Amino acid sequence: MQITARCFNDRADNQNGQAPMTRTEMLEIMTRLDTRANGLLLTGASDIDLLAGMFDLMPDFKALLDSPYRGEIEANATRFPGLYRYGVMLTEVAEGIADGSIRVPR
Fold first, then answer.
1. pLDDT tens figures, 35-72
2. What is the pTM of this model?
């Protein structure tokens, strides 16, 4: 499954006025997200638990999506399986909202 930025403003480069992310920063963020996601998943977290448990790290995930490195999430799925599962879950939620199968209050 391709992880998309549908609900996070689909752009490939950093246009938020900050310096571009380095590869080292990208790996640090991926490691931080993966560590948290794996910790939650190893305790039996459901997708809802994963979403809630990762909430405070959402800006880090968005930074990855806004960077030129967003394809690295999929390319490193076996190296960062918790991050990959989190990304897939967020993509499925975004697609469900977009196609109307998940209703959100207006």
1. 999 999 999 999 999 999 999 999 999 999 888 888 88
2. 0.79
Considering just the CA atoms, what is the radius of gyration of the chain in Å?
14
The total number of residues shown for the chain amounts to: 106
Tokens standing for 50? 């994963």
What is the band of 4 on the pLDDT scale with cuts at 50, 70, 90?
Answer: low
CA neighbor of 20 nearest in space, from 70, 86, 58: 70
Q: What are the phi and psi torsion angles at 12 (to 5°)? A: -95, -15
Nearest to 33 by CA among 70, 61, 74: 61
CB atoms within 10 A of CB 4: 16
What is the Cα–Cα distance from 68 to 54, expressed in whole angstroms? Answer: 22
